Each structure stands twice: as C-alpha cells, then as structure tokens.
Amino acid sequence: MNPYQIAIALWTLVIKEIKRFTRIWPQTLLPPSITMTMYFIIFGNLIGSRIGEMDGYSYMDFIVPGLIMMAVITNSYSNVASSFFSNKFQRSVEEMMVSPMPNWVILSGFVLGGMARGLGVGLIVTVVSLFFTRLSVAHPVLTVLVVVLTAALFAIGGFINALLGKKFDDISIVPTFILTPLTYLGGVFYSISLLPEFWQGVSMLNPILYMVNVFRYGFLGVSDIPVGWALAAIFTFIVVLFGVALWMLERGKGIRS
C-alpha cells in the first residue's frame, strides 16, 4: 500500500470507531458525565467542605484534574477493549488482517478511536466541572500533552486486553480488578504526601499516579512527583505496550486458533 492508501485505511478505521460510540452516546458518553457529577457533588461539595485544603488548594480544585483523568483512562481503555473484542468475536478482524492493510494501521486505528472517546468524555467532564469550580490551567501545553498520551496508553492497554480475552467476561476483569483499584489509589482523591513513607514508596509503583500528578501539575502547578520523571515513565509505557500489542497482532495472538 502506498502512503495515500494507508492514510485512507487509517482514517476509515478511526471514523468507524468514532461513529460506533457516538451512535450509542446514551451508553458511552452520558453515563460517565452523570457519574462524575456525583463525584463532584459528594466528594467535592459535601466531603470537600469538611476536608478543607489539599496542597494549598480547595479540595474541589484538587480532585477535578484527577476525576477528568479517571474518565479519560476508563473510557479510552473500555472503548478499544469492547470494540476490538466484538470485531474478533464476529470474525471481522480476520478480514482486516488478510487485507493489504499493515498491522500497525489496524492497531493505530483502534487506538485513535479509543483516544477519541476518552478525550471526548474528558472534555464533557471538564465542562461539567465548571458548574462546581473555576478552572485555571497553569501549563496548557503540558496539560494537553499528558491527557493525549494517557488516552493513547490506555487505549493500547484495552487493545491488549481484547486480544487476550476469550469471552466477553474477560474484558471486564482487568478494569474491575486492576484498573479501578489503581485509579483510586493513584492520587485522584489525595496527595501521597499524607501517606507514611513506606506507602509512599509503594504508591510510586502505580503508573496512574504519574499521569494524575502531571495532569494536576498542568492545572494547579503542584505535583507529588517530578514532572520529568513522570513524562519519561508515560512515554516508556506507551512505547513498550505499543510494541507488545503490535507483536501480538502480527502473530495472531488470541485471533488465530
């Protein structure tokens, strides 16, 4: 395939993925906004008024970046996991793999589609947060960079989950038992400086902590982790997981019997 044909194939895949989740927006876009509204009301207004300040900011201002990031992570991941597994279950993935389309285009198409949903939901949650607080962005470029990279990382993770899954229940195991606990323990609702030294060290093993802290630094200018280290970790995760996902796809892991 020449570059023009590759671009058309990639664009077609991305548009197909975007149409997929926008067509069923009451299931894909509306629930996250309602859930996050509940978080803003319960944790931000009710509990936050009793907690007071966190790292020099009101508790509502402190948790808003984390909640936006949580929405981006879960939706980027779940979109690719469910979409690619459905294609695998219906055997339509095999048609793509026997076509002249390179495997990296297939992977990139699904990942970009997942990123679109994650970033779209993140934007909706950001708009919702404006009803509860006034947002100020200290580092706009860094904020956009880290949210895009995070969406890409977890979209790739969802792709790997879909490849390994053998039945529909398998694509909910990782989000339920791994992704959700890591997200809640990733500094969304608290600063790790409040933890004992031992648990601070344990928290450093959580990759989501790096993403939440860099994103919060983009908004508020405060972070529990050096921003350079966090960005390096995110880039490393993306490169490694993309390589693993492409290797699995080229060998037909979870597709060919």
Automatic annotation (TrEMBL):
Question: What name does the UniProt record give this protein?
Answer: Transport permease protein
InterPro entries reported in the protein's UniProt record: ABC-2_transport_permease, ABC2_TM, ABC2_TM_bact-type, ABC_2_transport
Q: Which domain of life is it from?
A: Bacteria
Taxonomic source organism:
Halomonas marinisediminis
The chain positions of domain ABC transmembrane type-2 read: 23-252
Pfam name, any one:
ABC2_membrane
Membrane spanning residue stretches:
29-47, 59-78, 104-132, 144-165, 171-192, 204-222, 228-249
| Protein's membrane topology | Multi-pass membrane protein
Subcellular location per UniProt equals: Cell inner membrane; Membrane
| Family of this protein | Belongs to the ABC-2 integral membrane protein family.
Keywords linked to the UniProt accession: Cell membrane, Membrane, Transmembrane, Transmembrane helix, Transport
